[in-house]
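Hi team,

Below is the intake form for 4,5-dihydroxyphthalate decarboxylase from Novosphingobium mathurense. Please confirm the fields before the structure is written into the shared record.

FORM ID: S-0412
PROTEIN: 4,5-dihydroxyphthalate decarboxylase
ORGANISM: Novosphingobium mathurense
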Amino acid sequence: MEKLKLTIALSDTPGVRALRDGRVEVAGAELLFMDVHPHVAAYRQMVREQSFDICELAATTYLVAKSFGYPLSAVPVFLQRGFHHGAVVVREDAGICDPRDLHGRKVGVRAYSVTTGVWGRGILMEEYGLDASKVTWVVDDEEHVSELRLPANVEHVEAGNSIAAMMAAGSLDAGFGGDAGIGRSGAPKAGWNVPSSSNASHYAPLLDKADTLAADWWQRTGIYPIHGVLVIKSSLTQAYPWLADALVEAFEEAKRIWLAERTSGAGMSAVDLHFDRLASIVGSDLLPNGIPANRATLEALQRMALAQKLIALQLPLDELFLPVSNAPFAHGA
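The structure came back. Fields below:
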């Protein structure tokens, strides 16, 4: 039987290397890899145009798209992770020593629904008493889901300006670092991921000892923030109900190979170093898949998105994710 040919867009993360190089195949399907740089641009293409059959999509973007009835479905495969206690940086002359000092201030973030922003704000709200409605969130990019209506305390920069430039000029008191904020300028396009001259390394972290705080939080809550979720056109999952199981099995096998081959030490890439830091907090399974292993995390993300007025209600997880029979990834396991 001829294999089903499927276009797929994934970021270049180590957990999918065995799929990219052909060591792992999806039963009944052939993956045609479509590389988009930076990958965040693929989020917009998938949401607005369903440009690929399968795509790694930002977790919050998927929640928002689902709330608007977009024809997308997800399997419980989570391709990127990270903690966000160190996500927000502040100008040292702003007099900000505590998250509640952000009340009445302006804080930069690339887009209000960017997943790092949702996790970062959520942590500050739930752990440190931040009232996000008392902060003016300044953005310099559009939201992936264009129908999303933002809270009144979200402002867009003036044309030609950026949150990186505003932070450098003192027009912002704080901002998210990296691609989620002041570590880049402009919308996701060619060259977008070139670091800004006003990146986060020039500023002080809002919270000291972020890794220690993250480890304590994870031990207390079991929340291990997700970023990338594997999303499929709904028309495909309806036509080929076996596809969800096949994808979960293939991605889990690719992850197993990566974990078995992982090494620590000199010569590691920035991505590998990132996962090394995560391993010191969460242990050996750096990318746990399935609903049971991620229930607390998925419920927390929905709770935070609701509190930040990105979604109107929380959906049951069996409405957000396709049913799979693979133990231990099945919903009821």
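SUMMARY LINE: The chain has two domains: 4-82+225-320, 88-218.

Thanks, M.
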